Amino acid sequence: MPDTKIPRQAMPKQRPKERIRNFNEVALGFSAELAQKEAERCIQCKKPFCIEGCPVEIDIPVFIELVAEGDFESALAKIRETNLLPGVCGRVCPQEEQCEIVCVLSKRFEPVAIGRLERFVADWEIREGKMAVPEVAPPTGHKVAVVGSGPGGLTVAADLARLGHKVTLFEALHKPGGVLVYGIPEFRLPKAIVARECEILEKIGVELKLDFVVGRTATVDELFEMGYEACFLGLGAGLPWFMNIPGENLVGVYSANEYLTRINLMKAYLFPEYDTPIRVGERVIVIGGGNVAMDAVRSSLRLGAKEAHIIYRRSRKEMPARDEEIENAEDEGVIFNFLVNPVRYIGNEAGRVKQVELLKMELGEPDASGRRRPVPIEGSEYKMDVDTVVVAIGNGANPLVPSSTPGLETNKWGYIVADAETGKTTKKAVWAGGDIVTGAATVILAMGAGRKAARSMHEYLTTGKW
Amino acid sequence: MFRIVERQRVNPEVNRFVIEASIIAQKRQPGQFVVFRLHEKGERIPITIADADAQAGTITVYVQELGKTTFQMGRMNAGDEIADVIGPLGNPTPIEKLDGEVFAIAGGVGSAEVLPIARKHKEAGNKVIAILGYRSKDIVILEEEFRSFADEVYVTTDDGTYGREGFVTTELKDHLEKGRPIAEIIAVGPAIMMKAVCDLTRHYNIKTMVSLNSIMIDATGMCGVCRVEVGGETRYACVHGPEFDGHKVNFDLLLKRLASFKEEEKISLERYQAAVGAQDA
Ligand SMILES: Cc1cc2nc3c(=O)[nH]c(=O)nc-3n(C[C@H](O)[C@H](O)[C@H](O)COP(=O)(O)OP(=O)(O)OC[C@H]3O[C@@H](n4cnc5c(N)ncnc54)[C@H](O)[C@@H]3O)c2cc1C
Ligand SMILES: Cc1cc2nc3c(=O)[nH]c(=O)nc-3n(C[C@H](O)[C@H](O)[C@H](O)COP(=O)(O)OP(=O)(O)OC[C@H]3O[C@@H](n4cnc5c(N)ncnc54)[C@H](O)[C@@H]3O)c2cc1C
Ligand code: SF4
Ligand code: SF4
Ligand code: FES
After folding, report:
1. Is the ipTM of this complex over 0.85?
2. Quick one: pLDDT band at residue A1, thresholds 50, 70, 90?
């Protein structure tokens, strides 16, 4: 029986003092008992708003009821009908802004912990040593190329493979998963979970071609010459942004992409057992206030930094990072510097960064984004000694595919122009979705875009109509 | 997995490898490179494609032993497999019939990197003059290959044990002073050598292209570690280069950035050598 008097179950976590010494997952997940208790809180709304809040429209009340009944296998199957990556989304979705914010319980109580339950059933399957492989329609004989193995590309590959199309997934890096493997750290998303999802893809017949850089190893047009009939571009973000202030190319100033790639994809936290190094030093500052900045600053503590700072030009209220991640960072001892912005970096003779000059800001009128614009306070500059700087202010678009694909239109920021409903680009038989279309967004939005594109691609493959 | 078909030590510090990588072999053009990752725990390192055999589906590279990864590669043999070979990467060198001579200048293992570019210039109908510089006689490589097609070949050694004593710039200066009709210079080698060439040719106002060997990871334009300053602007060597107008390159910055991980590289190499030594004993 649903019971709103049960409080929202807290997630067991590693204690901050311990966890900043390892890269193991921070949030330990629900036990079956906790999960069932939490699931009982759901009042099984007749008109479930939560579903509308989920970009892939998981049938949330039904899966939660199955959890409450202890039928975890069916719960997982229910989720998998619309979401390929429950173990990932349950961990990294900004649930507090999506499915949970609209949960009716949140008006008077706390919302049902939908994401945590989703994660629980995905983890349950792993613990049970099971692997449900979806059914696949008979082969259609159509060949599809999916470029990029981030959440967008993975979704398209899975959806089309299940419909019986022959899918090849091309990935530039040596591991599949996109940001899920090179960006988001192990302590927030264990890489084994991503690897497992990719294994399922292979089981349903998707061919994975790693080390294949589309635009270099073969162009999109060459993929068509090779016999692929349709192509999805899920390239993700590229070319990290810098602020174009003096000293940004000093040694010790990393883009967040470089910093996190060294740590996650190349496992620099295990150097010298792994060959790729990283140098952190005693005081690290991370510029930015998003999830990427939180991942970088929390990684710094785990790499031995004595002090890890966030430098953010607005106030805590405006920070785009998930609340949960900000709280985790606070608990771990990250120092937050609000209303400051770097103006230049100062190096030593070896060209290594030694100091940052910061300028204080105050909040002015709201800008286009609706957030109050930071305004510099004249003459408020001060210096801070630093060993490492990580710039986490976002990414532009990677030029490799657009510049080698005639007929593929991009907008003024270099992002690929694609129809919001179908994912169709300006080039026939080419679709795009995820960060390469929207700019940096979320895992679930990339998956949502992949799902829509897959639908449109299937229609094209079966009717021939563009 | 990519199989090594051939490995040959061409001098005490450089090995030549022929590696199966059929798509890359068909696709590559002069000026492009690959990224290797030797094994699961390995680093990703960029290496220029010196030659390729499209029919056999192989590429040829010359790798100088500098640190852990290149030393480890030097211990691999025919039949061994490399976990990852990614490419071809970087922009191909633009090559066309020019009005004047092309000087191909190389330092050390840079001669393997200049070779395909010089050859293509010759095929495009240009007169090609090669100046190859080495520290000493025992590390001279590829001289015969250059002699087989180049119109003139000059070799210098720092210590005078072979060819002319001095640096590539010693030789180049003579040609510049003679006022030879040079249309373009392409220089590849250690950053310090490319800088010296550019400092010299700047006074003569001769177009000088250099191939920048910045540290790289993904080499697809995602991480930004390869950033260099060209004409005061930040560029990414892997997607915007690796070739740039040498007169505009901030070589001091490149040199400093190349030394980013000096201490860690030392730890890594010593650890590897200790382990390998123990194994041998
Ligand atoms: C550090 C970090 C933390 C984040 N945290 C969260 C979070 O907590 N919650 C959340 O919802 N979102 C988070 N995000 C955002 C989220 O990860 C992205 O929005 C999402 O991954 C975008 O998916 P995608 O499919 O568009 O591309 P990506 O995940 O970027 O994957 C693109 C893939 O395409 C490959 N590729 C690119 N070009 C080529 C080419 N030419 N040929 C072949 N392959 C190519 C790339 O190598 C990459 O593997 C985070 C992002 C970062 C960087
Ligand atoms: C586009 C490009 C093409 C290249 N082509 C060749 C080639 O054809 N043959 C060849 O032998 N080498 C080439 N290099 C250099 C090669 O990548 C490095 O020598 C290699 O990465 C060193 O790895 P390591 O682990 O053995 O040494 P590390 O331990 O990483 O470094 C040892 C020393 O090498 C220097 N170094 C580190 N990384 C680089 C780098 N990317 N480039 C230059 N020096 C570096 C360091 O400053 C250090 O002093 C190329 C580099 C680039 C960017
Ligand atoms: S996929 Fe994300 S938004 Fe949808 S239910 Fe799961 S956690 Fe909520
Ligand atoms: S809105 Fe909340 S309570 Fe209602 S069905 Fe969805 S999760 Fe359950
Ligand atoms: S090597 Fe990563 S962007 Fe060039």
Report:
1. yes
2. low
